[in-house]
């Protein structure tokens, strides 16, 4: 059998050799810290900033609203609330929240808190499609940057009119809606199958750490420098992060100039990713009628309803029902999300260990995570509605919200399980209905708990009942129909036709043997494509 070599020479040979030498040196210098972990660290910081921009309003609104004018109406009918309002604990150091600039009642506050999602819901799917077609780097990064700029404009909008604030937040949501699907596409490209849950858990725990620090710091910022300082700090932080993103992140390991051959093979061997592979069109009918995907979408919805109900309203609950002052409010609001971050990391490591050792199948691991991460938090929330003891209430919130991290990590990884190549689009499709709670939940809470008789245990108990019912229903659906296996419609059908070669011109009796193209740019490279004569 005789070997035939076809040479495709581009540009001069000297430039090619220089760039290859740079690539080899770069791979050696970065071997002590794998580049997939470098990507994960910068992506973690990106998720941190993304959620800092999203949740800062939850604490800021406590300092923005004039509580005296609202409480005045409530005091007129306080006699009808005897036995249903938690008393201020004896010896408590509770300090009244200073009055803010705005006379916004409960429904208006609900509209403001939910306004981010008015725009967010329209671009979730778009983010998956754009990242699928063009890569996630220049979808995710600029989105966070624009969100930071809009955050800097938030104080001006709020002082203009609450309608202007709603418009700015909705626009921020519109821009940030592409972020999660884009990040899912990037993670799918950079994660080896055996590290998938761990990488997903680490990157997405950035959002929980972002919530923790934002909620913890915001109370102090509002007290010492005014509520507007909250938006200025985190807006600037997002702009600084964008510089790191541009310099350190690449769409895929194939285009990274300094990645080692060993790491590239580790990332690509299980999913058979190819740098020049043409990705087939998305199988719409098969995916949208797939019970495992629909079950994952239902679980996603159930988790986000609880998540957004507490994210947007927990500071209000702690202030009005448990009587914590603004500084303590921020710290205590952050505590459950610190537990989420820790639980997400721990459950991700344990899940991958159980799968790698063959103790449990991927499907069993995913179902167990959803069961613990949706049902137990639901029961904890019901318990919160029956106690005025601040220690018991906070313990239940910490346990409940923390275990919710298991469900989040599992469902995020599950979209990659079902189809590694379409994970971004699947998340984008699921994210659209999953963001509805961001719009509906704050408004529902505002209606139920608004007005002079709104801040009562009975009304908050109703809020928790609704949230728990949705979570338990979602867990049941996923445990029946969920799966952790790659679906037939989601399997990669790789094309082995090399780039820059005209297939029609292949000589008779010659078969192509595909080799991974050089990571040198096409304008200064030389590729050799080996073929065999048969």
Which structural traits does this protein have?
mainly alpha, Growth Hormone, Chain: A, disordered N terminus, disordered C terminus
Quick overview of this protein structure:
The chain has 534 residues and is mainly alpha-helical.
Characterise this structure.
This protein has 534 residues and is mainly alpha-helical. It has 2 domains: 3-22 and 496-533, no CATH class; 31-67 and 105-490, Growth Hormone, Chain: A. Helices cover 68% and strands 3% of the residues. It contains 20 helices and 3 strands. It starts with a strand and ends with a strand.
Q: What percentage of residues falls in helices of 4 or more residues?
A: 55-70%
The radius of gyration over CA amounts to: 26 Å
What characteristic shape results from the CA principal axes? globular
Helix count equals: 20
Report the average pLDDT across residues: 77
Uncertain segments of ≥5 residues (pLDDT<50)?
Answer: 1-29, 73-83, 494-534
CATH class of the largest domain: Mainly Alpha
Strand order of the largest sheet: 1-3-2
Q: How many domains make up the coordinates?
A: 2
Q: Based on the structure given, which CATH architecture of the largest domain is correct?
A: Up-down Bundle
Count of DSSP E strands?
Answer: 3
Q: Give the CATH topology of the largest domain.
A: Growth Hormone, Chain: A
Can you identify the CATH superfamily of the largest domain? MFS general substrate transporter like domains
Give the DSSP E fraction (strand runs of 2 or more residues).
Answer: under 5%
Please write the string of helix (H) and strand (E) elements.
EHHHHHHHHHHHHHHHHHHHHEE
Q: What structural category characterises the helix and strand content?
A: mainly alpha
Q: Termini, distance in Å?
A: 7 Å
The biggest beta sheet reads: 3 strands, antiparallel
